[in-house]
Amino acid sequence: MYAYSIGVTAQPAEHWKSLGQDVLREALNRKPNENRAKNVVIFLGDGMDIITTTASRIYKGQLKGNTGEEEILVWETFPHVALMKTYNTDYQVADSAGTATAFLTGSKTKFEVVGFDETIETGNCLSERSATKVYSIIDDGIAVGKSTGVVTTARVTHATPAAAYAHSPRRYWESDADLTEEAKMNGCIDIAAQLVQHDLQVVMGGGRKSFFPENITDIENPEKSGKRKDGRFLTQEWLDRKRDAGIRAKYIWNEEEFDAIDVENTDALLGLFERSHMQYEKNRAKDVAGEPSLAEMTEKAIQILSKNERGFVLLVEGGRIDHGHHEGVAHSALTETIALEAAVEKALELVDTEDTLVIVTADHAHVMSMAGYPTRGNPILGLVDVPMGDDGLPYTTLAYMNGYGFRRVNESFHENGMRPNLTGVKTDDPSYIQDALVPLYEDWEETHGGQDVAAYAIGPMAHLLHGVQEQSYIGHVMKYAACLGDNKDHCQNAGSILAPAALPILLVSIIALLSSS
To answer: For residues 88 and 489, is the Cβ–Cβ distance under 8 A?
Structure first.
């Protein structure tokens, strides 16, 4: 073995030959899994673009004391991967509502729209009457008797989870207090109210405020209250509806109650652990009432849903990767990505990929860049070690095209005529805001990016994810694999599980056999 001058152990040709041959043999021996998917689990890293994945991989490795570049995230071991084009039908750079509708239903739509195709007029309730609703794989699963769930670290009424169960001309209509006068007049229903009327069995995340009246103090934050103006207690309505149907249902709001759940005697679970979004993983231990991790929620959801012999469909969102980026704090985005990986690992422990399709993807990108020529093993949240900028000042490997980081840059130019001098600055501090180039109107947060995102897959029909596709294609792959929605012609021949469509054929065959004997 050799060593570079910077102290990184070298890996000569024999290393790469051995590694390449091992991967090649694995690829040559790979056979497509053409079983029918009894279960589908889709993991959505909100804003987890390829740069975020790369930086998180390196950060994970460096947390272990390694150089980091050689590290691997669990979904990067999946045998199939594709790139997804994320644009909305009316915007070049997408938002999470239109993208979630795309990958969950199989139909692209407009910016900020949930559960309708592009015939809807954004923010216009009356246009619902002539617009076409599109239905998610969650809806299709319920239609054939599968159990279903949504788990998120964001509000359960936020864009991605909402696309699993709701239909709204505007994603921000999370409670009745958010509805416009036009929406109220024309009878639109807020997203939280739609959730409690839906047949989802497991729902966990944040967002309590949209479920309680505005005169009710929040149970965890006494200085704040609910948001609803109609006086409805939606958590109680959810419980009553489930229990009236004979379903063993529970509502919980803190970690102690979460830990006490008996999955064998619980068939439906609503957990709202924060008034708004859940805590960042790095802050979770400081939460007043305590809240479960994304991995723990994923585990509990699968334990409950997997009791159904017909299978289940589960959406798991790492929603705060996106928020870290919007705030310009790369540390938050990377640590939330690693938290999502823990959830994927937990799911893989609990399911069998012979009959469970697992997909990990993102809804859209961000404008974080990974730049310069840092040497191998240089801290991913640190300064580029060589070379400095032409102005003689250091800069970070990770930075943003726009967003809050411009404030510091702007102040420095006005005061000193140059960029901020980051010498001695702890750029790996959990709250450090990376520099940004472009100020935004009214000091807006960092924006999304328009580049493609990856989709990684393992399990039945995972090989159908290939090449560069429209993001809506993911919905078609999931539904085809699980024999849901329109594509069912292949189901009678699908392996692993005998499809319902095959039962009449089998019965006729048995009768014919008995008649001839």
So the answer is: no
